[in-house]
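User: Design a sequence. Structure:
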């Protein structure tokens, strides 16, 4: 396989890194399927009688499974058609970034961070994200992944929307 050095290849690498950054958390969410009944969580003799009647809704497992599916689709699309410059793959990646990654990753993050924006210690947050598995990592990793995805979409815009080798000046002169 010949490796090209252009915006589409760099964009494919950025999208792959971003999607793979999100995979561990999606695996964690998907593995919570066994915690859906009260009896599985509680212990003791009284819990078994109540366990058949009380179900705890588990919304994290379906989110994890759906996220793993979207990550797999994104990786397959990126390395089969996107790297070749097919226009439909740009649309698929645009949908993944703005209709999946933004609502799932960024909206909860923005909801949690915006009220404490001014009092948040950014340097400490980044140091925590690098050194240990903490709240800092829960904030920084989705933000960096989303930033890489947006950058991965922005780099090859000219290639996908205008076609390779075209410029706006050349297209304007076509109609004159």
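Assistant: Done.
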């Amino acid at each position: 396989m010949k490796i090209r050095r252009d915006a589409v290849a760099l964009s494919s690498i950025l999208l792959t890194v971003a999607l793979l950054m999100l995979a561990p958390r999606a695996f964690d969410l998907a593995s919570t399927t066994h915690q859906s009944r009260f009896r599985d969580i509680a212990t003791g003799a009284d819990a078994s009688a109540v366990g058949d009647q009380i179900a705890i809704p588990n919304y994290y497992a379906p989110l994890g499974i759906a996220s793993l599916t979207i990550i797999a689709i994104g990786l397959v699309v990126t390395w089969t058609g996107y790297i070749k410059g097919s226009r439909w793959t740009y649309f698929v990646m645009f949908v993944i970034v703005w209709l999946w990654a933004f609502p799932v990753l960024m909206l909860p993050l923005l909801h949690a961070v915006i009220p404490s924006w001014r009092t948040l210690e950014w340097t400490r947050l980044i140091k925590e994200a690098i050194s240990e598995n903490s709240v800092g990592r829960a904030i920084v990793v989705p933000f960096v992944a989303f930033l890489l995805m947006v950058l991965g979409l922005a780099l090859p815009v000219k290639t996908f929307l205008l076609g390779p080798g075209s410029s706006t000046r050349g297209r304007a002169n076509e109609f004159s």
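Residues 166-176 have pLDDT under 50 and may be disordered. The chain is about 75% helix and 0% strand.
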